[in-house]
Structures are given as structure tokens and as C-alpha cells.
UniProtKB/TrEMBL annotation:
GO terms for biological process: fructose 1,6-bisphosphate metabolic process; fructose 6-phosphate metabolic process; fructose metabolic process; gluconeogenesis; sucrose biosynthetic process. It is an enzyme of class 3 (hydrolase). This is fructose-bisphosphatase. Its cofactor is Mg(2+). InterPro entries: FBPase_C_dom, FBPase_class-1, FBPase_N, FBPtase, Fructose_bisphosphatase_AS. The keyword Signal applies. Homotetramer. It catalyses: beta-D-fructose 1,6-bisphosphate + H2O = beta-D-fructose 6-phosphate + phosphate.
Length: 350
């Protein structure tokens, strides 16, 4: 049994992956993938923590496919993740918030994995030193993503892009792994491979992620609601009524809820996972489909929240059942403790 207080018996993410692979050889592929993801997250954590001293704050001067002003750290963290996912040879196709199109990984040799990621989530907070994160999701293809040389030679860039796109546009229910890394007062990496959620904390002195939250389970009910209430005049009525009631202690529990919202999905979801409650970015009069992106924000986070015993919905449909039409599709999302999400959905149906 691991004992984090005994340096000779500490359970690190690397050791956890080895032990899981010993139990289930299919985990072998994830072992190498998690090796590259954790390296990338340690690098991004390092970049974010020192950004104020290394002239890495502020804008990169480009507008991304989302129409957002890219931060320098959006671009840099995207490059860090692209490079680390390439050298594993396991990722055949990769898609990112910061890239218009999914791309075929040339270096891939056993390329069954399609990896999607948001390299720096909550990046508008990074100049103020407020929590940010990385979100990743992994789909497994039946056959190799590789395109045989002779076939690829005859294909146009658009045909290759089309092939990558078909592999990328999958519902969250097809995810085989998902997780996030939180860059905050602690650096936490929470991950699921479909049988529960394991939480790790970076020990900066050793440079290893240590298992600190085994088998994470979200509380069935919380007393925190986490929405951007600045948008509430444009919300549908039912949601306005839900928030009004719970903040006055007129919801099912009769207890007053408190509001916590930091504007980084990774931070807000991480707190919801550990403390319970409800987080959402609903649609509103201005954003019919909400703001958060289905493929690399809503779906991976929903997979993880469900694996911890929580729920995640658009208000009427389960997020993991949604089929993305484009790489950067947005979706309304309400997730968290099952009893809180169920209560909120009752207001939305009225
Ligand atoms: P990103 O920084 O990756 O573009 O994501 C920002 C998202 C998400 O992190 C957060 O929940 C949401 O934007 C906050 O949006 P508002 O500032 O509109 O509340
Ligand atoms: Mn962004
Ligand atoms: Mn994001
Ligand atoms: Mn981002």
C-alpha cells in the first residue's frame, strides 16, 4: 500500500501507471501517453508560475479561431502540448482550442489515439496570477490513424484534414481517458481511464505527481453555485428562478447557497468536484449555445465528473451523448453534485 509520508513508498503518477499496466496490459498505451501529458503539464505549470518574471504575460498579438485575443501563454502551452504528444508516437490525430484544424501527427508509429485539449483554460486570468489549467481528452480508434505513405502521397491537404476531422468529431461517450491539470496554490492532475477518478498533486521538490486523492467521489449535494451571474439577465427564466431560490435558502435543502466563480472552468470544476455544488455556463440570449467548447472542455470534464459520481447536462441532454458537428462547437453545460443538478433541471423544465 502506498504511504506518501515514506519517500520509499510514495505513489507517483508514473508508478500508478506502471501498476495499472501490470494489472491490465491494455493500459500500456496510456502509460506512455500519460508520461508525455504529465511532462507537458509540469512544464506549463512552471511557465505559468514564473510568467511575471519571464515577460510571458500579456497578449501574443494574434486572434485565435475562437475570435479570442491569444495570450502568449496560450500559444506557448499549445506548443508544449503538441510537441510532448508528438514524441510519444501514440497520438495519431490531435485537436486543440488554439488550432483551427485537427492535425495528423507525422511522428506517430502506433497511432490509435485521438487527443483533444485546451492547453490553457481560463487564460484571461493568467496575467493576474489567478488559477488556470489544462484540459485533455483521449479517444481510441479501432485501426491506426496513420495514412499509408502511398495513399497519403496522393491525397490533398484538405483530404487529409477531412480524414482527421472524421476521427476527431466523436461524442464524449467515446472518450477512453480524460483529465485536467490545475495551476493554482497547488498543481493538481486529476484523471480518469473509465474506472473512477484519481487525483495527484505535484511535489515541486521531487518533480513528481503524487497520488493524494485516490478514487475521488463528488458529494451528492453541495451548497455552492458557480455561474457568471453577470449574464443572468439573459438567462432563461427557469435558471434565474433556480439561482434566486437557492441563494435565498428556498431550494430543496432550505439552506442558503453561496456563490463561488473564478472564470476558469478547471478551477470552478475542481472545487465543485471536491466540495460539491453546481457549476454551469448556460446558454443565454446572446450565446445560444453557451460559451464552453464541447470537444475539449465540456466532454472531458463531463466524463471525469460522471466517473466521480456527478452529473453533466445541457439542461435537457447528457453532455456525453452530444455529437460534435465541428471541432469548436460550443454547448451549454450544467454539472456537479447529482442532487443539485437534478434540482436545477427541474426549474429548467418548468
Ligand atoms: P479559455 O481560457 O480556455 O478560452 O476558457 C475560458 C472559459 C472557461 O475557462 C471559463 O469557465 C469561462 O471561459 C469563463 O467565461 P466568462 O469570463 O464569460 O465567465
Ligand atoms: Mn481561449
Ligand atoms: Mn477553456
Ligand atoms: Mn484555453
Amino acid at each position: 500500500r502506498f504511504d506518501n509520508s515514506d519517500p520509499s513508498r510514495v505513489m507517483t503518477l508514473t508508478r500508478f501507471m506502471l501498476e495499472e499496466t501490470r494489472k491490465n496490459p491494455d493500459m500500456q498505451d496510456f502509460e506512455s501517453l500519460m508520461g508525455s501529458i504529465q511532462l507537458a503539464c509540469k512544464s506549463i505549470n512552471n511557465l505559468v508560475m514564473k510568467a511575471g518574471m519571464t515577460n510571458l504575460l500579456g497578449l501574443a498579438g494574434e486572434v485565435n479561431i475562437q475570435g479570442e485575443d491569444q495570450k502568449k501563454l496560450d500559444v506557448l502551452s499549445n506548443d508544449v502540448l503538441k510537441n510532448s504528444l508528438s514524441y510519444t508516437g501514440r497520438c495519431g490525430v490531435v485537436a486543440s482550442e488554439e488550432e483551427e484544424h485537427p492535425w495528423l501527427v507525422e511522428e506517430a508509429f502506433q497511432s490509435k489515439f485521438v487527443t483533444v485539449f485546451d492547453p490553457l483554460d481560463g487564460s484571461s486570468n493568467v496575467d493576474a496570477g489567478i488559477a488556470t489549467g489544462t484540459i485533455f481528452g483521449v479517444f481510441a480508434e479501432e485501426e491506426e490513424c496513420l495514412i499509408p505513405e502511398e495513399e497519403a502521397n496522393g491525397m490533398t491537404i484538405n483530404q487529409i484534414r477531412e480524414r482527421c476531422l472524421i476521427r476527431t468529431l466523436q461524442p464524449g461517450s467515446n472518450l477512453v481517458a480524460a483529465g485536467y491539470c490545475l495551476y493554482s496554490s497547488s498543481c493538481h492532475l486529476f484523471v480518469t481511464f473509465g474506472n473512477g477518478v484519481q487525483g495527484f498533486t505535484l511535489d515541486p521538490e521531487v518533480g513528481e505527481f503524487v497520488l493524494t486523492h485516490p478514487d475521488v467521489k463528488i458529494p451528492s449535494r453541495g451548497k455552492i453555485y458557480s455561474f457568471n451571474e453577470g449574464n443572468s439577465p439573459d438567462w432563461e427564466e427557469g435558471l434565474q428562478k433556480y439561482v434566486d431560490d437557492v441563494k435565498k435558502g428556498q431550494g430543496e435543502t432550505g439552506k442558503k447557497y453561496t456563490s463561488r466563480y473564478i472564470g476558469s472552468m478547471v478551477g470552478d470544476v475542481h472545487r465543485t468536484l471536491l466540495y460539491g455544488g453546481i457549476f454551469g455556463y448556460p446558454s443565454d440570449a446572446k450565446n445560444k449555445k453557451g460559451k464552453l467548447r464541447l470537444l475539449y472542455e465540456a466532454a472531458p470534464m463531463s466524463f471525469l465528473v460522471e466517473q466521480a459520481g456527478g452529473k453533466s447536462t445541457t439542461g435537457s441532454e447528457r453532455i456525453l451523448d452530444l455529437q460534435p458537428q465541428t471541432v469548436h462547437d460550443r454547448t451549454p453545460i450544467i454539472l456537479g453534485s447529482p442532487e443539485d443538478v437534478n434540482e436545477c433541471c427541474k426549474y429548467l423544465k418548468e
